[in-house]
Automatic annotation (TrEMBL):
Domain Transglycosylase SLT: 521-623
InterPro entries in the cross-refs: Lysozyme-like_dom_sf, Lytic_TGlycoase_superhlx_L_sf, Lytic_TGlycosylase_superhlx_L, Lytic_TGlycosylase_superhlx_U, Transglyc_AS, Transglycosylase_SLT_dom_1
Keywords annotated in UniProt: Signal
Domain Lytic transglycosylase superhelical linker: 440-495
Signal as UniProt keyword: yes
Protein name: Transglycosylase SLT domain-containing protein
Family per record: Belongs to the transglycosylase Slt family.
Domain of life where this protein originates: Bacteria
Signal peptide: 1-24
Length: 685
């Protein structure tokens, strides 16, 4: 039986288990139903959340055993060979082969025979995710070893991972060493890298300086801002005119260096301000302001320093000082030495938001890079700035396109313009049954389903997403519908999220499985059902057995300690040890939401942020307030990117679920959820 035959047989079994609405769909141009099938009033069917319709086979067990043995390092070479034999003709068997190649290469990268065999495997499986994964993993082995010829053989065929930050940087390192590219372009890559505290960033810095030693200080400036002080210090020692004692003083005590060096050269002065700014941006701002008027700093140098200090002050919540520092910097991209200029530009906007300086908001958005300026969040705040400065027609021109979106900022735009949130939008033309059935034969989809059955969630997601490469809107909608039929809620939501604004079906993007039970639990816990669903959608995408690296488990991603405390606090009978059980998890998660909601007097931003980062963080962020602040602005000022994005997504989800569950009461929901955040002790009713 070939792979296609396996897929057809497997898909036939899946269809037999699909919902009645799926079975009765007309064969041609079938429209999706407007509502999901009704959930039972009692019980918690596993099919609502996770595809579990079929028992594991002996080959499934062998595959899982191989995975476990490999993870624990207990597999002997003969074990690997035995598993490979047991798993012949198994749709996931190529993973065994790929992992065996990876383990062998990692153990002995100099083994050219194994390398050639691995390269041949990649070539034979080109177009499959297993080859993409193996090529990526092997490239990460050979790049740090300087094997540029091997790296290029692995990097060139990649279809998906060429833009991975580390691989992109390594590729540039080898290009520079081969006389290609330019030092300026490489510095630009350093300036936008997600992290400079990495081996690959240090390697790129070395490659830049080998090509262009004159870039030593600009590179060091970037590394200082990115907190790779070890590499920055090494560069200062090797390329500057400073003696060892001066370098030591500069990096260990920058303020003391400035005091002890009456006339530092321009570059060491800039480095000292940056280093001092990492620890105490206010003190660094004083040092910069006290600079002698005749000092040889250019306008670009000053822009670099004031932008950096404003950014550091804004992260500390000192928005008044940040605005003052930003006001002294006219440009956002001073000589390429400003690290992550888009992030700095964002906090320039946020500082003006915090102070209700709408003119400053508009000016700050204008200084963003063109790509960042087009981001819907900054488009919203630009429109809002014009609205608040009585240019409502100009504001509407910016905001009206946003009202077509189902996103957080789309809803904020609807609220400001007093419009209803957009509802269902059917695909045109309608999706046929044949469109859905095509995905049943896709090898990557079949592998994704099998991996999900084994609870290998991340691998399953990658295989599924690999299958969607190049899919058009009609195909994406059909894939999302197929995921719905077989109970893969996370893939359904993810796939539906790739659709354009012209196609939206709430049953695919915002499912409400077991609505009766979830509503009952939420009611008992005295929290909104829409909020519970909003948290589940963000935390687990409705996967009941998923767990995080930190040990959070289940639909609402609860830590065992949090679950135990919640059960004791509220006298909940659900067993905290059984967090993979949907009813248990939702019960304890809902009561924990109640605790947070009560603690923060119903202020959903603080409660939601506390769910993600811990209630102590919400207390600390609210402590910065001296007066009530609009909730949408407060959310924008959360200093942790993860929590800031989490709050927007959960409350955006909640507003969408409110529209679905109570459409007559949905207008203005998001702004109502965001509300006004009051200082501690001054909560608003």
């Amino acid at each position: 039986m070939n792979f296609k035959d396996i897929g057809l047989l497997f898909s036939a079994c899946l269809l037999a288990a699909s919902s009645p609405s799926a079975q009765s769909a007309p064969p041609e141009a079938a429209r999706f139903p407007q509502t999901a099938p009704a959930s039972p009033a009692s019980g918690f069917p596993s099919g609502d959340f996770l595809f579990q319709a079929y028992p594991r086979t002996a080959q499934d067990d062998a595959f899982a055993a191989f995975m476990a043995g490999r993870r624990t390092g207990t597999l002997a070479p003969e074990d690997k060979a035995s598993y490979a034999a047991q798993l012949q003709n198994y749709p996931l068997s190529d993973y065994i082969v790929a992992w065996n190649f990876y383990d062998a290469v990692k153990a002995d990268p100099a083994d050219e025979i194994t390398l050639e065999q691995a390269l041949a495997f990649i070539q034979d499986h080109r177009g499959e995710y297993v080859a993409e994964r193996l090529g990526t993993d092997l490239a990460r082995i050979y790049a740090p070893k300087g094997r540029s010829e091997v790296f290029q053989k692995l990097y060139a065929p990649l279809q998906w991972n060429k833009e991975e930050p580390d691989l992109k940087v390594w590729n540039e390192v080898f290009r520079l060493k081969q006389g290609e590219g330019s030092a300026g372009e490489a510095c630009g890559l350093l300036a936008t890298a997600p992290s400079l505290r990495s081996d690959y960033s240090s390697a790129l810095a070395d490659a830049v300086l080998q090509r262009s030693p004159g870039q030593a200080w600009p590179v060091a400036f970037l590394l200082i801002q990115g907190r790779n002080l070890t590499k920055a210090r090494q560069i200062a020692s090797s390329y500057s005119q400073l003696n060892p004692g001066e370098v030591s003083s500069l990096f260990s005590n920058p303020s003391g260096f400035l005091e002890d060096t009456p006339a530092p050269d321009k570059d060491s002065f800039i480095a000292a301000i940056l280093l001092e700014g990492l620890k105490d941006p206010d003190a660094a701002a004083e040092s910069l302001a006290a600079m002698p008027s005749g000092a040889p700093l250019s306008a670009q140098d000053l822009d670099l320093l004031w932008n950096f200090l404003g950014y550091r002050q804004a992260l500390n919540g000192d928005f008044g000082s940040a605005r003052l520092s930003f006001s002294k910097a006219a440009s956002m991209q001073p000589n390429g030495a400003l690290y992550q200029p888009d992030a700095v530009a964002e906090w320039r906007v946020r500082s003006s938001l915090a102070l209700k300086d709408w003119g400053g908001v508009e000016r700050a958005v204008s200084l963003m890079s063109p790509s960042r300026k087009r981001d819907e969040g900054w488009q919203y705040w630009l429109g809002r700035a014009r609205w608040e400065t009585d240019r409502k027609a100009d504001a509407a021109d910016i905001l009206t396109p946003l009202t077509k979106k189902h996103s957080y900022y789309g809803k904020l735009a609807c609220d400001l313009l007093n419009q209803d949130y957009p509802g269902e939008r059917l695909p045109k033309p309608g999706i046929s049954e044949a469109d859905v059935r095509q995905w049943m034969q896709n090898p990557s989809i079949i592998r994704a389903i099998m991996l999900r059955r084994l609870r290998l969630y991340s691998m399953a997601s990658r295989e599924w997403n690999w299958a969607l490469r190049g899919a058009n809107q009609r195909q994406l909608a059909a894939a999302a519908e197929y995921a719905r039929r077989i109970g893969l809620a996370d893939r359904m939501i993810n796939t539906a999220g790739k659709l354009s604004d012209e196609v939206f079906l709430s049953q695919l993007s915002f499912p409400t499985p077991s609505l009766a039970m979830v509503s009952r639990i939420a009611s008992e816990a005295q929290v909104p059902t829409a909020w519970v669903y909003g948290v589940i959608r963000q935390e687990s995408r409705f996967m009941p057995a998923v767990s995080s690296g930190a040990g959070a488990r289940g639909l609402m991603q609860l830590l065992t300690a949090t679950a135990k405390w919640t059960a004791k606090q509220y006298g909940v009978s659900s067993d905290p040890a059984n967090l993979d059980d949907p009813a248990t998890n939702i019960t304890l998660g809902s009561y924990y939401l109640k605790f947070l909601n009560d603690k923060f007097s119903g202020q959903k931003i603080l409660a939601t942020a506390g769910y993600n980062a811990g209630p102590g963080r919400s207390v600390a962020w609210r402590a910065r307030l001296s007066a009530p602040m609009e909730g949408a602005v407060f959310a924008e000022l959360i200093p942790f990117r993860e929590t800031r994005d989490y709050v927007k997504k959960v409350l955006g989800n909640t507003a969408e679920y409110q529209r679905i569950l109570e459409p007559s009461q949905s207008r203005g929901t998001l702004s109502g959820l965001l509300g006004t955040i009051s200082p501690a002790g001054a909560e608003q009713p």
